[in-house]
Write the structure tokens for this entry.
Amino acid sequence: MSSFCEWAKTDDGVFHLKLTGVDGHHYLTKEALHELKQKLAEIREIASSSSEPCRGLITSSSPSSTDAGSFCDGIDHKSLRANMAAPVAEQARGLADGMAAVVRELLAMPMPTVCAATGGAASLGLALALAHDDLVVLSDAYYKLGNVEDGVAVPPHVAALVREKTDRWYTLTTLKSRPRSGNWMRRWYFADCEAASRDGVVREAERLVGEWAGEDGKVHAEMRRQLYRESWEAVSATLTSSARYSTAMGFCTVQSPINGIFVLTMASSDGHQYLTDDAITDLIASLTTVRDTPGLRGLVTTSKLGSFCDGVDHGAVGQPDEQAATARVGEVIRLLLEMPAPTAAAVSGDATSLGLALALAHDHCVVWEDAALALPEARRGRPLPGYVAALLRDKVAYARLRKLLMLRAEACTGKELVGTWYSANDPAAADREVVAAEACELLEGIEVGNGKNYAKARQAMWPESCAAVGMEITKPPPPRPRPSSPEGILQISKKEREKHEASDHHQNKQTKNIHSTNVGDSESWGVGTGCNSSSSTIPPFATPVVTVPHVANRSRGRSGCLLRVVGGMTMGTRQLAIHSLAWSRRGILPRCQLVYR
């Protein structure tokens, strides 16, 4: 299969991206959009991490002949109609979602971008041209949107680009689908420059790149997003709502090979997957997108090449930024702990420092047998955030392994780690692809009824880790302390007395009735009338006695102390008072009454 595009970097720091379709139309198919997005992501990653100056990006096309060929004709509607697998509108919507990922890469590019439209452009091809900072057109070429003419709705992010780039000619361009020449577009400020030949178009684009006034690419990208805020927000909303297309964030790529199960792949140019500021931003955005996607069944996190994740690059990041990065990694771990579906880390490479914490934050871990896992901070003399120790305590079963990892900075392999995690699974074979496939298979076999309840169950299982990243965990109330003396057991609070006042009064009446109907000398029993006694004073040496109203067996002790027979067990007054009140609180006996003898 031939390549759709290719890029090269010149000695003066200018990237040239060329569309190389063989038919001269450069139609945007699903495969072409995916390749174009990947090439732009590679350029953006190099421009962000390179120490050498990157002056700009020029996008052009290679025609099939010297005098023929378009810059990009967008969607081939004849091909869509010939494909009976899906309706034309649905196919066009999928391609528009793919173009949203391309436009996002261009809007986030940390350097000036110029489109050298060396031929005509139509449909999504015109949107591709407008997504650049500057546009140079060929004088005699024609440009149009054409969606209304083709019977296809204009995607929101394309409409936003046209509104922000074409001013008052929006209606003419969008609703009437009129083609306009390059000369006309330059006259009405659609384009920045025009040229009569294809080589002239490229030369004008190089001149525009050379006029760039700034030197900080990140500042340029941020100002671009502020200037074209509507387009940026429309692209972000399209990518968030689309679960059919992979969402490219530069450092992260999210795909859904199985219905409802998403695979987040981390990839950087050096293979370390360092958690830089941009990488953490991409992680947070990707995880938020996955968390808010309807029908989510699971998330697998893996890496493309090299390590799984090596944490923060201490050699490149200063101490203040390092502390900020540590706090932001805590946000990533919090998103994983809040995920309303099962999560699995497919550790297909080394996981060190905060990269190991990232793996531990998942519900399950499938580890490559040759992967090295370590926390080298103790050897390097650097502190670790509190959530790393909390994750170790929650997830690593053996205290000795926790000590070796954190205090001695010793590394262990995936093969050595089998069975030491509560959520670990047998490591896969040496093939990295098998690790991710096994993680997907693991999550596919888990059925979750309610995602929110699943997240609450995870938080209840690992409360220390959740609290370490700032999550509010509802803890059960502490148990009531046991009284240390009989007086504490007999003590009844004011609130409790008010609550049961009516019940006590009723039971006092029952006690009087039982006393008056019992056979024998009632005076010899010495039964009082309860706390609500008619007696105005209580004798100073009165002995408190608990009366159980429904117990009729009574007898007098040898010393004149009142006794009670309960369930065949004879007790003294003080012992009975203690046990009866405890029984009544448990619902075993009716509520006891305190009387005086």
Q: What stands out?
A: The CA atoms of residues 4 and 21 lie 5 Å apart.
